[in-house]
Amino acid sequence: MTEKVAIVPATHTTPPAKFSHGVRKGNILQVAGQVGFLPAEEGKPPTTAGPTLRAQTLQTFANVKAILEEGGATWDDVMMMRVYLTDVDHFAEMNEIYNAYFEEQGLKAPASARTTVYVGLPKGLLIEIDALAVLDA
Amino acid sequence: MTEKVAIVPATHTTPPAKFSHGVRKGNILQVAGQVGFLPAEEGKPPTTAGPTLRAQTLQTFANVKAILEEGGATWDDVMMMRVYLTDVDHFAEMNEIYNAYFEEQGLKAPASARTTVYVGLPKGLLIEIDALAVLDA
Amino acid sequence: MTEKVAIVPATHTTPPAKFSHGVRKGNILQVAGQVGFLPAEEGKPPTTAGPTLRAQTLQTFANVKAILEEGGATWDDVMMMRVYLTDVDHFAEMNEIYNAYFEEQGLKAPASARTTVYVGLPKGLLIEIDALAVLDA
Question: How many Cβ atoms from other residues are within 10 Å of residue A123's Cβ?
Answer without folding.
Answer: 6
